[in-house]
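Reply to dn_fold:

You asked what the input looked like. This is it:
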Amino acid sequence: MEALAAVLHQPREPLRLETVEVLPPGPGEITVRMEAAGVCHSDLHVMKGDLAMRTPIILGHEGAGVVEEIGAGVRSVEPGDHVIPIWRMSCGRCEYCLGGRPALCDVGTAMRFTGLMPDGLTRFRSASGEPILHYAGVSTFSQRSTMPEAAAVKIPRTVSFEHAALIGCGVITGYGAVMHATRVLPGSSVAVVGCGGIGLNIVQTARLAGATTIVAVDRVASKLDYARRMGATHFVNAAEDDPVAAVKDITGGRGVEHAFEAIGVAEAIEQAYDMTRKGGVCVVVGIAPPTARARIDVNALVYAEKTLKGSIYGSTRPRLDLLTLIDLHGQGLIDLDSLLTRTYPLSQINEAYAALERGEVARSLVLPQQDPAPQAGIPS
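and this is what came back:
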């Protein structure tokens, strides 16, 4: 079948909207019609060349859609089911999966870095018949995508595709950073360095967990306004003030019990660590370029008994936590509507990323089915 897809041919070039062939699902695979896809910084890292990937590749790792076709042996979903793709698929059998840390599974890691399905092949072809790579095994920037059955979670049909797409990466990562990577308890103090899509969800999950001091740190004033809506209690504009000094001033000189870095910048990691109090935990969630190195005061690590740790996918169990988040949203405990700033057709994906880089949005989505039927060679 054919589909429109946003294809990256070279880093630092715009995505190109092209007609691609989507191969049918093989055994243990499904084909999903994408209804919504998230515009996330992780894809932008690849587009800018900060995160090396082979090309051509169809990006997009956050989304929601409808199962159109299933391959032999598929049992967990059937055509017509609504699903959220899991961008870090897990095998369910290795030591990481059995130990409750599926984001560390080697199968998902290999798919992420090779751009290939588990059998070493792709399910996308260009108009000339050349293979096109997958991103994170799901490639949500295509009207249709074939993926492993294990890379999708069935969700209730009552959940909107827009809400489901938001939950699939930014919300679950922020939620997991608070609930799984560390334990934010009622009355805790929290600082969030970087109030983009993930940082805002760290803010609102810290509120949900009962933190009473939630400091939002960013260089863009509009993002601090978004953080206010999500439940932040204090605000530091890092373009105007020293964030470490400001956070310590807010907390009586002690620093916070839990600091989160959600940008992927070495300086921000250092700041988050330095604003963590004695016995506190600093969690790095942002994806940094491979060459990035942060300078850490090792004596403080020992004498102050600080903890510095990383978290991928919020250290979550997506097959369980995605459904938990849907329930929390249904109970009014997780705010999704305030996160969604804009939507775009797939054909305007470059405009969507330009707005993201300018800091104009909390979170935005592309809606692939808003575009017309496939036509070959349409530039975006």
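Residues 38 and 157 are 19 Å apart (CA to CA).
Hope that clears it up.
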